[in-house]
Design goal:
Number of strands: 4
Distance between the termini: 40 Å
Order of helices and strands: EEHHEEHHH
Number of helices: 5
Structural class: mainly alpha
Shape: elongated
Radius of gyration: 23 Å
Largest sheet: 2 strands, antiparallel
Strand content: 5-15%
Helix content: 25-40%
């Protein structure tokens, strides 16, 4: 038989105050929050929802879309890199140009195209390089990449102005998902915490 060991409350290791909030959610599993004091008021009905509004709500993320945990809760269109996205809907509509072709075609102003393309290519290159440089890259599950901004057609000409505008608007908004993917790659490679490293091994 093993002898029981008693430990006084003075000698017992104390859990840091910041980690004391842990909640079990029937759908999402264990939730540990250093800031919250209860369950979120709203969760997504489906963990695989792609409705833009649902990205702001807590959800259960899977291995293939774990980057959604890094979805920004605030606007990203400011700062040295992302200020090129600070184009309002009205300004975006005014930035749709008409060609001199017959019949005419419509396209997003080339200056905005170039700035968006530079940002998109940079984010994709950084994400790709960081993920592939990770020592466990070959053992990671495949990531289901979000639809990229250029796949909405902001670099193409369109037959109708309204179509060109909608494509540009969706492309602008798609940068938010791309930024989440890039943030995930950066966090994965910069983390040196033993606790976080263990989490990464479990999840990936």
């Amino acid at each position: 038989m093993f002898r029981s060991v008693s430990m006084s409350s003075e000698n017992r290791p104390q859990l840091p105050e910041v980690y004391k909030v842990a909640i079990w959610h029937n759908e999402s599993g264990l939730i540990v929050s250093p800031f919250g004091r209860g369950l979120p008021l709203t969760t997504t009905a489906r963990h695989d929802s792609t409705h833009p509004q649902d990205y702001h709500y807590p959800r259960c993320v899977m291995d293939d879309n774990i980057f959604l945990a890094f979805y920004p809760r605030r606007r990203i269109d400011y700062g040295f890199l992302f200020r090129v996205l600070a184009v309002s809907n009205n300004d975006l509509d005014a930035a749709i140009k008409q060609s001199s072709k017959s019949p005419p075609t419509f396209f997003l102003d080339f200056a905005i195209q170039e700035k968006w393309a530079s940002l998109e290519n940079l984010l994709l290159q950084v994400t790709k390089n960081l993920l592939e440089a990770h020592p466990n890259y070959r053992g990671m599950p495949d990531i289901d990449y979000p639809r990229l901004p250029h796949q909405y057609g902001y670099r193409h000409e369109h037959r109708e102005k309204e179509v060109a505008y909608r494509c540009a608007k969706r492309a602008r908004d798609a940068f938010t998902l791309l930024s989440a993917l890039s943030s995930f790659a950066i966090a994965l490679c910069l983390s040196r915490s033993p606790i976080l490293a263990g989490v990464h091994r479990l999840r990936l």
